[in-house]
User: What shape does this take?
Amino acid sequence: MSERYQLFKYDSCPFCRRVMRFLEGTSIDVTLRDIHRESGAMQELMHGGGRTMVPCLQIERETGVEWMYESLDIIAYLEAKQAS
Ligand SMILES: N[C@@H](CCC(=O)N[C@@H](CS)C(=O)NCC(=O)O)C(=O)O
Assistant: This one.
């Protein structure tokens, strides 16, 4: 089953940069959503994930949407996906 990813982030956030550095070494297709630059992105994060904390990975599956917080969890999840 395929998944689609969106990463909610902003540039000066060190935890977001950690995830961005990981992504730069991969070919995983992730749509970037900057909550400071993009109108409506922060509200979408708040309404969907329940918090405005970044980074947050939105994982869209056929069965529903998951909002994953914590940079190390996001990296571990995507690393495992990449390896599978
Ligand atoms: N432990 C978290 C820390 C994330 C974090 O502290 N993010 C800050 C920005 S650098 C934030 O979004 N703070 C605002 C909030 O928590 O609503 C991680 O590793 O992702």
Remarks:
- The radius of gyration is 12 Å.
- The chain has one domain: 4-83.
- Residues 13-15, 51-55, 70-72 surround glutathione (CB under 6 Å).
- The helical segments are 14-24, 41-49, 71-83.
